[in-house]
């Protein structure tokens, strides 16, 4: 049962990594396709294309903050990515600084989030609508149909991965299973002294310590990694993934003429 508990927790951790990797890959590919396959005819169309690519990276950041139970949060980078209209919808003053270091996030708070909540803006879904609206707006006469379909699919994959992350986060291991497993481990540890009856005190203490450390340590690890979305060292480095996408976008936009 302990092995099953640990394997289940790691499966959730690995599934979370796959979902984030899917988001990262899709955004990277979408930026490349947008840049090379959409040919603006004037300055306004060029700005619209750039904003669509910024919205893609903003989706990654918005998914990060949504998973961290801060769905209405706009970091300084996000303020430079999203349009003023999105900032207005989110009720954020683009001139007001926000400090991420003051956050205190618990697993219960993160797990209380669903796909839609009444008290907050679902920014990832909103940005997905914005990007889809842009794809409907552009002139498709010069775009190969398969390439245009790939643009649409990229948005769909990002959205599906976001929903997958929410599924992992809001579906914890059943409480009854956890309680029963802890009870079994406790009874087993309490029974060890009876199985070592007659052994030297030092031997008894060493065996008791090792077995207790192993069992409780494995259970603690399982509880720690079953929710891979957080801000401590045992969670997935979502910030690093988002920053990589931001740097990629910055490179593409700064070398737009060469590309």
Automatic annotation (TrEMBL):
Keyword set includes Transmembrane helix: yes
Membrane spanning residue stretches: 176-194, 200-222
Xref: Pfam families: Bestrophin_2
Intracellular or extracellular location(s): Cell membrane
Source organism, top-level taxon: Eukaryota
Keywords on record: Cell membrane, Ion transport, Membrane, Transmembrane, Transmembrane helix, Transport
GO cellular component: plasma membrane
Entry keyword Lyase: no
GO molecular function: chloride channel activity
Signal peptide: none
Membrane topology label: Multi-pass membrane protein
InterPro entries the record matches: YneE/VCCN1/2-like
Identification of the protein by name: UPF0187 protein
Organism for this UniProt entry: Smittium culicis
Lineage: Eukaryota, Fungi, Fungi incertae sedis, Zoopagomycota, Kickxellomycotina
